[in-house]
Design a protein that fits this description.
Elements lengths: L7 H9 L18 H7 L5 H4 L1 H13 L6 E2 L6 H5 L3 E3 L8 E4 L5 H6 L11 H18 L3 E6 L1 H9 L2 H10 L1 H25 L3 E6 L7 H21 L3 E6 L7 H4 L7 E3 L6 H8 L4 E6 L1 H6 L3 H14 L3 E4 L9 H14 L9
Parallel strand pairs: 1-4, 4-5, 5-6, 6-7, 7-8, 8-9
Antiparallel strand pairs: 2-3
This protein binds zinc ion.
Zinc ion binds next to loops.
């Protein structure tokens, strides 16, 4: 693009620091695996979610085929829970796997729990290998490398323990929860360090379960642990994008106070204009085109219209509000990218 003055990596990182950009970054901070991209590159889930070679091919297709200006691996969120001893099932071409069995089922399991070893456990070594393979490719075209790590409360309640048990322990034995939360901080920090060592420059710190709790609880069971983890990850030199799922309007102002984070990836349920008003300029914002109704089911025109609205409303990074749906048509993915090029100079941080 002739109008580009910054590289995609410079642009994305500047936006995360809330510094001027030439136009909005169009970055794949949420999962980018779609069936259309699988068909374009010949790497399919579940293999492309299990082995480094397929992960690299599919991640690269988001850049090469769709024009998204980053690469991100892997494409599901259960890496840590699986590496800790959990089991996944329902591996499909057009769907992410689900948790079948959790690593922690009893209070005794909490005592026994040790953070997984990224060089040894589950698919962690494959993710690290994929990042190492992506580094020279990404360097050639100056695009960022992003990888997800669960924030502590979300790791516990979505991937380590059945959510029902978590809620029960919080009521009957909160100390048990807090003991586990400390170990969950450590789990994320150890894994993030390995991802950063392998070459990831941005950690997508996934707070996807926050939307299930009230503000009071968020401040007790999620925010302090996320602050502890995010600060440590930032100290290692990485950018930290905190992700929210579902309607977190009641939390957003306080979410922006999580120490160490550069940015919040706002779920589509919260209006971008309201998000900006709630957060001010405490952190950068990313989002939040609707991944289902707009990107999977809508037309390219609707995608462009909603992307334009997000840009005008104050997002700093153009992307969906959550992971790209696997059945997103390629033309809709390309429409989002096109909207970023067409309207990106209207972004809050764009030089006038
Ligand atoms: Zn989400």
């Amino acid at each position: 693009m002739a109008d580009d003055e910054m590289t995609p990596k410079e642009r994305f990182h500047a936006a995360l620091r809330q510094e001027p950009v030439d136009r909005i970054p169009i970055t794949g901070i949420t999962q980018t695996g779609t069936v259309d991209l699988m068909e374009a590159c010949g790497a399919y889930w579940p293999e492309a979610n299990q082995k480094a070679e397929g992960m690299v091919k599919l991640a690269w297709a988001a850049y090469e085929v769709a024009g998204i200006e980053s690469v991100r691996v892997p494409f599901d969120v259960y890496i840590e829970g699986e590496a800790a001893g959990g089991e996944l099932y329902k591996w499909k071409k057009d769907n992410q796997p689900m948790m079948k069995k959790y690593a922690i089922e009893t209070p005794e399991d909490v005592d026994k729990y040790e953070p997984p070893d990224p060089k040894r456990d589950g698919r962690m070594p494959e993710v690290l290998k994929a990042i190492e393979m992506l580094v020279p490719k990404a360097e050639k075209v100056n695009i960022p490398i992003i990888s997800p790590v669960f924030a502590p409360f979300s790791l516990i309640s979505l991937s380590l323990v059945n959510m029902v048990n978590v809620m029960m322990w919080l009521k009957t034995d909160p100390d048990l929860y807090h003991k586990l939360a400390k170990k969950a901080v450590e789990t994320g920090v150890i894994y993030a360090e390995a991802l950063i060592d392998a070459g990831a420059d941005t950690i997508f710190y996934n707070g996807g379960a926050d939307g299930t709790v009230k503000l009071d609880d968020f401040l007790k069971i999620s925010q302090p642990y996320s602050s502890e983890g995010a600060k440590k990850i930032r100290e290692m030199g990485a950018y930290v994008v905190y992700h929210s799922c579902a309607n977190v309007k009641h939390l957003l102002k306080d979410m922006a106070d999580i120490e160490g984070i550069h940015c919040i990836s706002v779920s589509q349920e919260v209006d971008m204009k309201e998000s900006r008003e709630l957060v001010g300029d405490k952190v950068a914002l990313a989002g939040n085109v609707d991944p289902t109704y707009t990107l999977v089911k809508g037309t390219p025109e609707k995608v462009k219209e909603e992307a334009k609205y997000c840009i005008e409303s104050g997002t700093d990074v153009l992307c969906p509000g959550c992971g790209w749906g696997p059945t997103t048509p390629l033309e809709n993915m390309k429409a989002l990218v096109a909207a970023g090029h067409e309207f990106g100079k209207m972004a809050r941080l764009a030089r006038k």
